[in-house]
Amino acid sequence: MLTRFAPAPTGYLHLGHVVNALHVWGAARERDGRVILRIEDHDRQRSRLEYETSIIEDLAWLGFKHDGEVIRQRDRHHIYHGALQRLIDRELVYGCTCTRAEIQGAGIGDQGSGETRYLNTCRDKGIPLGDGVGWRVIMAPGVERFFDEILGPQEQDPSEQCGDLLVRDRMGNWTYQYAVTVDDHVQRITDVIRGQDLLSSTGRQIRLAKLLGRQEMPRFRHHALVMKSAAQKLSKSDHDTGVRDLRTAGWTAEKVLEKAATLMG
Ligand code: GLU
């Protein structure tokens, strides 16, 4: 059993992360497994070293020990590039000049998740893959099914949810969806344990993993999110729940862990 804790260094560690960490390390203990610490700094504009250092330090302070070296997505450009070649050779990747604002203007809003579906406008334009354009992978119609260990059987059709999937943005960043799928595949992650905000991403990650040649999918467990109020999920910028701030206010690691445990749901 191999799972991962995968924070984006775009803010400090907060109680939502601690809840996720309790789930991840708890499952690893349960199944006699290991935990990789993967810094998901694929978005070079938003990621900051200061956050990364602080996240790693706060995790150690809380007693969450990962196995092996810390993995950073910024060091893995060649892996993402190499993995995509297989899809480029099969003509499943195309260049796209649409901006987010254009897509939101023209897209079909999905009522449930509020997600905007890309209408595959550039699919047949023959725009070469290069810098300054987005790169998209074709999502053919079809349902992906998986069993969630908390929520039960799920089915999602990525072509209906999001349309052709952006794997590299116009700034040259690999996207979350792509980087996480390649990493979970290459690192042979057997268990993906994350918040329910990412449930709708799982079908497209399974689709992408299949296209990349992954034979056996990981197990999935999407746990409840920590809510500040009924509708608002915690964000890393919320100072009132930052582990840093709780430490400064004199909380012990035990007290932070106890508080997080009461929020696990
Ligand atoms: N990096 C993602 C985040 O910070 C989590 C990725 C995942 O668990 O799939 O929300």
Mind explaining what this structure looks like?
The two termini are 24 Å apart. The protein is 34% helix and 20% strand. The protein has helices spanning 15-30, 49-62, 77-89, 100-106, 158-161, 176-186, 202-211, 243-248, 253-262; strands at residues 2-5, 34-39, 71-72, 93-96, 108-109, 116-117, 134-137, 144-148, 152-156, 165-168, 191-195, 219-223, 227-229, 232-233. α1 packs across α9. The longest helix has 16 residues, at 15-30. By secondary structure, the protein is of the alpha/beta class. The chain is globular and about 60 Å long. The strands form six sheets. Strands 1-2-3 form a three-stranded parallel β-sheet. The model has no long low-confidence stretch (mean pLDDT 93). It contains nine helices and 14 strands. The structure holds glutamic acid. Glutamic acid (GLU) is lined by residues 6-8, 40, 180, 194, 198.
Summarize the structure.
Helices cover 34% and strands 20% of the residues. By secondary structure, it is an alpha/beta fold.
Shape: globular
Question: Nearest-angstrom radius of gyration?
Answer: 19 Å
> Helix tally?
9
Helix residue percentage: 25-40%
Mean pLDDT across all amino acids? 93
Unreliable parts: none
Q: Name the strands of the widest sheet in spatial order.
A: 1-2-3
The amount of beta strand, in percent, is 15-25%
- Tell me the series of helices and strands, N- to C-terminal: EHEHEHEHEEEEEHEHEHEEEHH
Number of strands: 14
Bound molecules: glutamic acid
